[in-house]
Design goal:
alpha+beta; 2 domains; three-stranded antiparallel β-sheet; 3 helices; 40% helix; disordered N terminus
Length: 134
C-alpha cells in the first residue's frame, strides 16, 4: 500500500511539473506585443508595449513616431523584451542593431549593442529604445 501511495504521489508530482512547464511555455508567448518605429533622418521614434493585438501595438508606435514629424519606418515587432541601438559618424554614416523576443531586458540590450557594434567596426552605439512586455 505504501508503494502504491508513493507511486501515485510521484505521478501527481510529474503531472503537476508538466502543467507548470506547459504554463511557463505558454506565458512566454502570451500574446502581448511591442513595436519600434524610427526615422533615422530626424531621430523621431515611437514605441509600444503590452498590447494584446499586433495591429494596435503598431498603430500606437507609428502614431507616436509620426507626431514628431513623420517619415517613420517599422523596425521590429516583438514579444518579451526588445531594444534598438544606433551609431552615427560625423559624416552621417549610420548603422543600427536590435534585439527582440528576449526573456530579459539585458538580453535584448546586449544583442542590440552587439549587432550595432558588429556593423561599425566596434564603435560604441547608443540605445534609442527599449521595452519589455509583461
Amino acid at each position: 500500500m505504501t508503494h502504491k501511495l508513493i507511486s501515485m504521489a510521484l505521478i501527481s508530482l510529474a503531472a503537476m511539473a508538466g502543467v507548470l512547464l506547459f504554463s511557463a511555455t505558454v506565458s512566454a508567448d502570451d500574446g502581448t506585443y511591442g513595436v519600434f518605429y524610427y526615422n533615422k533622418d530626424t531621430g523621431a521614434y515611437g514605441y509600444s508595449y503590452n498590447y494584446e493585438n499586433k495591429d494596435d501595438a503598431e498603430t500606437r508606435a507609428y502614431e507616436e513616431c509620426s507626431s514628431f514629424g513623420g517619415g517613420c519606418r517599422h523596425i521590429v515587432t516583438f514579444q518579451g523584451c526588445g531594444a534598438f541601438a544606433e551609431w552615427r559618424s560625423e559624416e552621417d554614416e549610420y548603422v543600427f542593431g536590435y534585439g527582440y523576443d528576449y526573456d530579459t531586458l539585458k538580453g535584448a540590450l546586449d544583442r542590440a549593442m552587439e549587432e550595432c557594434m558588429e556593423r561599425n567596426d566596434g564603435y560604441k552605439c547608443g540605445v534609442i529604445m527599449y521595452a519589455c512586455n509583461e
